[in-house]
Structures are given as C-alpha cells and as structure tokens.
Design goal:
alpha+beta; three-stranded antiparallel beta sheet; 10% strand; extended
C-alpha cells in the first residue's frame, strides 16, 4: 500500500492490523515481540482499535474531494487476487476430500443427507446448511471455477439432481445458462452465501 501511494505521489499515513476472527484463538508472542500485540487482535476489538488509530491522527492530510479521488483510483485499479491452491501445493484434484463435512468430528467425515438435513453417522451431529460450507470450499479449492449441478452432486455425494437444484437455488449464487447448461459462480462476497433463501 505504501508503494502504491508513493508511486502516485499520494502522501497519507497508513497503518495495518491483523484480525483473528475466531474468539477462542489464543494470541501469544515472544518477549522480544510484545509490540506485535498492538497489531494482532481479536475481531471484537477491531472497531475500538480503529477509533484509537484514528484519534492519533489530528492533522487533516487530504480534503474530501482529494480523498474521493484516491477512492476512485483504488476502485479502478483493484484486481482480485487469484490463487490456485491445488496448483500451488501440487495436489491432484482427485485427492480433494469431497462432501459436506462434519464440523464436530476431529477427522473430516462426509455427512449424509436425510429428510432435508445433513447428519453425521459418526457423532450424530445434524446440520441444515453444511452444503454452504462445502460450496465455499469448492470455490476456494478450484480457484473460483464455475460448478454445474452434476459436479456439485458428485461433490456432495448425492444422486438426486432435483435435491442439488433446490440446494443451489437456496443460495444467492450468480448463475448463467439454462437448464442442463447452467453453471453457478461464487458470490462476490462469501458471507452472502450464508444468507439462505426460504
């Protein structure tokens, strides 16, 4: 970010934080790096830390008009990062552990679908939305490759195209094509996928 700003002759202060979203995560550091605890924090402290950083800058560097210009340049030059995890780690696609996986078992176990819900044959956990995480995993592992009903059926270990059609329709995923040629694309914001319809 500093390099990007400098290249465009924009002189504004910038700071960073590393935010851990899981509340149970224990954040520790060696004695010589205690100052890093000012940069690494749990999600619930993010807003207060942003306010604290903001209050430390008293002098206005950019006027509103200039700030809007910087925002426009940022949006114009933004390009989403693409990361092919399978290629990077040299993992053949057939080695991917497929299925809607149990979040309760220590070892990944594919859930079974029965009467509109997913259940684990190992621990008995039930989950109505396990397929949401499964499709997120698919998109992340395949570098956002589109998915068809047939591919998702295979990924979830389901035989019914109608059930998979209903599951896909219940997620706000962009799609293109019609009937058998339809493909589903990742939502621009993965959080939106958790907002199931109906």
């Amino acid at each position: 970010m500093k390099k990007w700003l400098k290249k465009r002759n924009i002189s504004i202060p910038n700071d960073f934080l590393i935010v851990i979203s899981k509340p149970s995560t224990i954040i520790q550091t060696s004695h010589g790096y205690m100052n890093m605890l000012q940069k690494v924090l749990h999600l619930q402290f993010l807003l207060s830390r942003i306010e604290k950083i903001g209050s430390s800058y008293k002098k206005e560097v950019l006027h509103t008009k200039e700030l809007k210009k910087v925002c426009r340049i940022l949006l114009k030059e933004h390009s989403p990062e693409t990361f092919d995890a399978l290629k990077f780690y040299k993992i053949p696609r057939h080695e991917i552990l497929t299925g809607a996986l149990c979040s309760n078992c220590p070892s990944p176990i594919a859930l079974k679908r029965h009467h509109g819900t997913w259940f684990c044959t190992n621990c008995g956990t039930k989950d109505k939305t396990a397929h949401v995480k499964a499709i997120n995993d698919y998109f992340l592992l395949t570098n956002d490759s589109p998915i068809t009903n047939k591919q998702f059926r295979h990924f979830l270990h389901l035989s019914s195209a109608d059930i998979v059609k209903k599951l896909l329709a219940g997620m706000p995923l962009p799609n293109k094509g019609a009937t058998k040629g339809r493909v589903y694309l990742p939502a621009s914001d993965y959080q939106n996928i958790t907002e199931l319809k109906g």
